Structure formats: C-alpha cells, structure tokens
User: What shape does this take?
Amino acid sequence: MSTLIRWKPSLEWMPLRTFDRLWDWDFEEFGKNLLDIESEKAVSWVPRVESYEKDGHFVIKTDLPGIEAKNVQVTVENGCLTIQGERKMDKEIKEEKIRRREVFYGSFQRSLAVPEGVKTEEMKAKYHDGVLEITAPLEKKALPKKIEVEEAKK
Assistant: This one.
C-alpha cells in the first residue's frame, strides 16, 4: 500500500514557514529521543503546589511521592519560599530491565513568593503520606474583615 503526500511548492522557496514542516517530523523517533536516558538526566522536574487561606492561616501543599522527609528542605528568605529535595531511584533495579520510565528522579527546587501579611517566622512544615504541608498564620490586618451593610433610613 502506498501513501500519497501532497506536494506544497511554496515550502520549497519559503523557508520561514517552519510550522508547515511540523508534520514532516518523525514523532516516534522524537519520543524515543525525549525519553532517552541521557536526555532524561537533563530534564528536571518540579512538584506541583497549591496554596490557599484557611482559618487565619496561609497553607501551601505539594505532592512529593516516593521522597523521604529527610530529603526535603524548606527555606524562606526575603518573601520567597523554597522547597527543594531529591527523589532517589531504587538501586536494585538494573537499567537494562526498565521497560518504561515516566517518573522523574533526581533533585528538584520550587520557589514561590509568600504573600504580604504571612508571618514567616512562625511557619511550620509537616510531611505525611507523601504530601508536604506548610502553614503560617496571617497577620490580623491581612485577614478579611466583614463590613456590616446597614439599611438606609427613608
């Protein structure tokens, strides 16, 4: 079975239209190269975080599965919170026996700005079941204030 490919003569003399050539790529080969061991070492991973306010506290949570608490460091300096650590690969597994690798290993670092009104000196971090939870109280002036709405007299 043969496949016909439409010839686009404009591509021959317009080299700046690079996206038209996108479908000429060999995506299967591209995927193999992307997941190659050497290129994987160059790719760093960053854990996802969520932050919210709850009961007068600022809370940051991040999932760090497969990482021991001793391999996680949390620092705060000049209004910037940094979470860093390392996920280590199981040394008993031989490279040639791996069939698929979708989990990133190695060191990571995630930094985010701490909003105004967060008491960073009272910040605490807990690690449980692969989830790091960082909490810090909010200053009273940073808390929302409820304003009563009065009905106007006629």
About this structure: The CA atoms of residues 35 and 101 lie 8 Å apart. The domain at 46-92+101-141 is CATH 2.60.40.790 (Immunoglobulin-like).
